Input
Amino acid sequence: MVIGLTGGIACGKSTVAKMLQELGARVLDADRIAREVLAAGSPALERVVSRFGPQMLRADGSLDRPRLGRLVFNDPGALADLNAITHPVVMDVIRQRLEVARREAVGVVVVDAPLLFEAGMEDLVDEVWVVACERQQQIERLCQRDGLPPEEAEARLRAQMPLEEKVRRADRVIRNDGSLDRTRSQVVVCWREATTCTGVQHSHGREAAPGCDAGQPPSDRLDHGPAPKGLRRSGVEYHTRGWGW
Output
């Protein structure tokens, strides 16, 4: 089973991904992969420098991510150009790692991707889980986490699909407005419901707790033919429309 995990920026998606990992899932972190493909000396980084200039490099040859972020989050055209460079490379890596997981018969793989919907990746997964919280909490967490002024935090929120739209399109919604225990209880019940439906063996001993807003996967995601044992639709074709940054 492949779970697509997404949500608004600073909603706590990484926290939920860690909880899923503790339950037995293998997590593919799209942001981490993006950093890997933009390592110093990589072909993708060379293309970024060609487009945005050598001032985007630090003295050691690595990417100055904060500087590039300030540029692209205030310039939709620049963000589109950056996505066009990085997105295909990141997707190739995700595709390769899903294939590895399929060969190893991994029961549950989580694709942790901030812009899962924007990139058309919902066709790659069996269920989409969205982590959500109040907008003011997003801004406060983003300012605290990344040291951003509120106006820059707002710009980053505006650069993404509205969280309400992600929630509307989700199969399961996890609210991360309260305590970690409350979030964890939702994750456990979603995990139990999803893995029970697919026959994946549970890796957690506690009883499921109430609190997860779960729906049935849309039927059009079930029409891609026979699936390999352990993972579904790891080779599905999909369209790319952007990437998280």
